[in-house]
Amino acid sequence: MPGDEHARRPSGDVRRRAVLVALWAVASGLWTWALIALLHRYPLYPHFTPLSDLGEHLRDSGLLWSGKDPYVLRPTLNDTTPPFTVLVYTPLRLVHGAVLETIVVLANVVALSVALAAGLRRLVRRAFLECLVVATVVLTPLTLLVLSQAAWSSLWWGQDQLIMMSLVVVDLLLVAPRWRGLLIGVAAGVLLSPAIFVVLLLRIGWPAVARMAGAVAGTIVLGALVNLHASTVYWFHLLPSGEAVRRVFILGGAGTGTVATPANYSLEGMLARRPFAHHVPLTPTWMALVVVLAVLALLVAWRAQGRQLDLTAMTVLGLASAGLSPVGWDHHWIWGIMIPLVAVELWRTNRVLSVLWALAIPVVFLRSVPLTQSVHWPMGLSKVVWSGGPPLAFIVLVVASAAVLLSGPRQRTDDS
Questions:
Q1: Which domain holds residue 311?
Q2: Using CA atoms, how far apart are residues 254 and 1, in angstroms rounded to an integer?
Q3: Would residue 340 count as lying in a domain?
Q4: Within its chain, how far is the Cα of 161 from the centroid?
Q5: Cα-based angle 40, 44, 47 (whole degrees, multiple of 5)
Q6: pLDDT digit string (tens) for 261-285?
Q7: Would you say residue 284 lies in a domain?
Q8: 0.70 cut: is pTM over it?
Q9: Residue 322: is it exposed, middle or buried by C-beta count within 10 angstroms (0-12/13-18/19+)?
């Protein structure tokens, strides 16, 4: 009977969704288990232990809740994040060992899968759950194991870059317009750098900007309620004076304490190393590049969003937040994992630009481990690639994208 057939369709959809959810859960669990094993078998930095950055956050959390100020007690800092960041990690103080590792890695796997699924959904216009399964089963392991040093580094250190990137992607691609801006505000309250995405919220409307500002203010208030002294020191001294960056970057961040360390993948770090070192004045050249590239990146993102190239707009701003900062460790370049999706998005409008973005993949992704760590580059090429690497690719991509996207007529953005 036609009525019976109509009645069976919803139950069939429910079963199908249940199968997809089960497949996603099993795949996430299996990849989490495999990644934990690989993190111990293929250490990214043998002289550091896995989740060492997370360990510092947990120690700082204990200090904050006990009324002490980690910004005063520690002469060097691991990063420039505000007090709210370590409060987010407070629940993890209740677990240890394998349970802690499992929670952290699983959270990153899910975050990466969600971000890739949201981008894939924008390209193929399929149901999000279908895209999530494809991302978890195929794209997430491909990204972690083959392509992205940034993603692997985030797992190794116990960083929150993947999770914050996922919050931005979900906010801009999945959240209903009336709630847009809240997740970006939370991400900015944790990591600061996601505040750059306010540029994309401006086109959506001032209510979205207000929601973002309110969320950031909420994170500041929560941090102050737990430890007013630490919040005051951070927001009124460390951050505006540049002392936070100096403690990370000059006094010994990651055990280096030098602008020219190979671990610093920023424009300033690039200029401080060979073949650029001693051939260009470091500070004036860096500042000039920052101004020019910042303006170009903002214009490219604005125009790309206007042409409904949302993945391109987000990725340009994400790469800008890493490239323009004086501190750019490998995990800061996490937005490089979106470049393959950007290349597909651009293929429909400009294939030359699409190919250029695709060619940047091996440079922006750095020397990934564990599966590609044995790849040896020619000596002459490796000096340029590993001295400049992501910053050089960022310069090329932004300039080329500006030349293409800033020309031609504007298109209206679909804000629905």
A1: 258-416
A2: 69
A3: yes
A4: 4
A5: 85
A6: 777 788 888 888 777 777 878 788 8
A7: yes
A8: yes
A9: buried
